[in-house]
Design a protein that fits this description.
alpha/beta, 5 helices, seven-stranded mixed sheet, eight-stranded mixed sheet, Metallo-beta-lactamase, Chain A
Length: 297
């Protein structure tokens, strides 16, 4: 924790703009879906976004995608304009709001592309391949995964493993407290670190050891902030946390910028605007994630 933190820089990109985002940094994250549980269309969600979880992360030339919610569809539309694709998709878990975008991810239908999909919460009882086949099968879906033309492979690991999708890109993983299991990720690249921690539920007064170790000294922490502390007692055992717990964890772990993420469907733009003000007062520099937000590390 003695390492000096970098200061993530904020910029905004119109989703669907194919401009060269990498002019800003060789390590950045762009938010394509920030909502939890179910997508929320409509004007009252236009500022912070209604698509469910999906992040685009570049480590140099290496593309990492985190979660495959409805935000994956517009990301795929943009990626199709950039030629052949080689990418990894890392899932926190396989609840519907985090995988529903997969059948609509256009790069999966292009034979030039190589796409690896990863999950750390299923084995030994299940495999990712089996879960996604069941998800995309009658009577739940009209066509099975075998329609994908891309070179698609499925990879199971155990949360707690360390992965290296490319030399110099290191992913530390950790189990999260969520019904049916989930995985948190820390991406270390070029001496900088980004953590993606959703979906997870805290126990009041007992900071999660797995989360604390994962985010220790991280430059940027994206955290499950579905509820407020005031709402939390009504939703115990639903598997989610609060932005205030995110503040407490980042302070305890000596982490840098906190990004509030996985917004509850009942929290419209006005509500999230109030959260942004309260979070800034509690921990200056804290951000509320919104679609199109780009953070350079």
């Amino acid at each position: 924790m003695g390492r000096r933190l970098c200061r993530p820089k904020q910029r905004v990109s119109d989703l669907g703009d194919t401009g060269n985002l990498q002019n800003g940094s060789d390590f950045f994250v762009r938010f394509w879906g920030t909502r939890g549980s179910i997508s929320c269309p409509g004007d009252s969600y236009s500022r912070y976004g209604g698509n469910t979880s999906c992040l685009e992360v570049y480590c140099g030339e290496k593309l990492l995608i985190f979660d495959a919610g409805t935000g994956l569809r517009p990301l795929g539309k943009e990626l199709c304009q950039n030629g052949a694709l080689d990418a990894d998709i890392f899932l926190t878990h396989t609840h519907h709001d985090h995988i529903v975008g997969l059948p609509f991810f256009a790069p999966l239908f292009d034979k030039r592309n190589r796409i690896r999909i990863w999950a750390g919460h299923l084995i030994p009882d299940l495999t990712l391949h089996d879960v996604l086949v069941q998800f995309m099968n009658a009577p739940l879906f009209p066509v099975p995964p075998k329609i994908f033309a891309a070179n698609v492979s499925f990879h199971d690991f155990t949360a707690g493993d360390v992965l290296e999708p490319k030399p110099g890109v290191r992913l530390i993983t950790a189990p999260l407290n969520h019904p049916n299991g989930a995985t948190g990720y820390r991406i270390d690249f070029g001496g900088r670190s980004l953590c993606y921690v959703t979906d997870t539920e805290h126990v009041e007064g007992r900071p999660d050891r797995h989360v604390l170790e994962l985010i220790d000294g991280a430059d940027l922490v994206i955290y499950d902030s579905t509820y407020t502390d005031e709402e939390f007692p009504k939703y115990r055992n639903w598997g989610h946390s609060t932005w205030q717990e995110g503040v407490r964890l980042c302070e305890a772990a000596g982490a840098g910028k906190l990004v509030i993420f996985h917004h509850d469907p009942s929290h419209d733009d006005d509500f999230m605007g109030r959260v942004a003000e309260q979070a800034e007062a509690a921990r200056p520099g804290t951000l509320v994630a919104r679609e199109g937000l780009v953070l350079d590390l």
